[in-house]
Amino acid sequence: MSALTQEKAIIAFGKLGQKLTSPADILGNILYSAGNANAWFTEENIKKSILSFAEMLNETDLLLWFKSIQFNTSPKKIGLILAGNIPLVGLHDVLCVLATGNIALIKLSSSDDQLIKTVLAELINIEPAFADHIEYVERLKDFDAVIATGSNNSSRYFDYYFSKVPNIIRKNRNSVAVLDGTETKEEIQSLGNDIFDYFGLGCRNVSKLYLPKGYEIANFYEGIESFQPIINHFKYQNNYDYNKSIYLVNAAKHFDNGFLLLKEDQSLASPLAVLYYEEYENLKDVENKLNDKTADIQCVVTKSPINIMSFDFGQSQHPKLWDYADNVNTISFLNSLN
């Protein structure tokens, strides 16, 4: 088998992107077995994730992205501990390792142990040279660097265990939306995707709103009414019912439209089926607050003129190849190992 080259990687990634535009052809029965293994992984959400990667791996963006990549002809072994909160959430890290010519030692999440294998098998089918750069492991050993994603608790363990090698350790993050009151119903509906895609389980999902003082909550609820069917998913409904009962028992002030609870709270991380909100007097105050919480925020969604990198409504779950998690440039990290 001939060795992997950067040119081969670019061509193969492009072909994979084209293949992923037909999720059912790639996944077949995996669509059903993955959903049976993890009830959050509905067919709709799996397809949504696959299509987001198809969108990401377009020829124009690939050529631009690869300009920043130093291809390693003496591959390093990069340990990857992947999360499993939403379908294929760890695939971007794998692609970064492969794009730099390194070897991915992949510790899959038990919550998502089929989808990534299936997609990478397709990549190997397109370009067999990748077979020597992908290894699935139960326990990491003999690695040169590590990229590990987990909770705030597991990150403390990762920090200790991997302290002697170059590493990226990711913790819990949340995303927020800033409204200024001029949003149309269509814009609020787009924001609904940032909130409800993947049931709100991803770090790119909006878990908190910043609202101008006196904002009419009914306007927000009217804009997201098309997402009402989410309550039909039993696990989501269980979370909604539980949180609603807690608020009622504790006489906690909240708003309720039958499928999403709104509660005023200073925190960023809201429970599932709950969206926290906070009122503000002026946008500069919000900007200052968000700058103070940079280490805890993954994405900011807004159309307001704030001096913070942000996404348009409906775009938080459509990152580009260079929209790196936690704003840590994975490619720069991998380039530094050469």
TrEMBL record:
* Keyword annotations: NADP
Question: What parts of the sequence cross the membrane?
Answer: none
| GO BP, sorted A to Z | bioluminescence
* Any GO MF annotation of the entry: acyl-CoA dehydrogenase activity
Pfam families per record = LuxC
Protein name per Swiss-Prot or TrEMBL: Acyl-CoA reductase (LuxC)
